Amino acid sequence: MISRSVPVILEEKDFVVLNKPAGMLVHSPRGLHSDDSTIADFVALKYPETKGVGDNPAERPGIIHRLDKDTSGVMVVARTNDFFEHLKKCFQNSEVKKTYSALVFGRVPLKGIINAPIGLKSGSVRHSTRARNMKMVKSAVTEYSTSARFVFAGEDFSLLEVTPRTGRTHQIRVHFLGINHPVVGDQMYGKRNNPWGLKRQFLHAESIEFPLSDGKRFRVEADLPDDLSKILKELESKKP
Where is the Pseudouridine synthase RsuA/RluA-like domain (predicted)? Predict the structure, then answer.
């Protein structure tokens, strides 16, 4: 398999920072092989030292956190086991701040916190905040602020800066569907149609911040990809 290229934002002795493209799995589903190139494939090929790093380096070399397949943005990958354990502990202690850019349908309040447990819908692979007979229900908290509001093609849209306080599967997408403001382009938790024909969610991990081993805070950003940037420029050009 030829590994798909992934933009590298930063290379440090103990870790690397990537800008994950949309449409790319972080790693193959557990116990299964994917014919598509993954972040794990790219990392193992470009940084062979990661093959011995992590809880399951054979499948997830150096990988500490994940993004959904169709979500783009910043990812940190460990090059040493010491850093892997350090950042893993930071996640466990809620010392990591991840910020996402999301475009959603509707006019959203300027600021808000969504505090709604998320569970797996019975007989489905979809998660929900309000389905009956949900399984594996866990608390989930998402904080957001509205960066801009737009009217385009007769519909309202809101550009949000989103900070999940917990790390549940599909959390941002499920939470905004739960308050009737689905993420634009989301094929599982949103409206299937949008004015741009976007076939993946307008959701981008724009920054991550965490403490280094010396206690200093480290923050890094990932540029918005072209497909989302183009939509945003069109929206801004139509503002009165």
Answer: 14-176
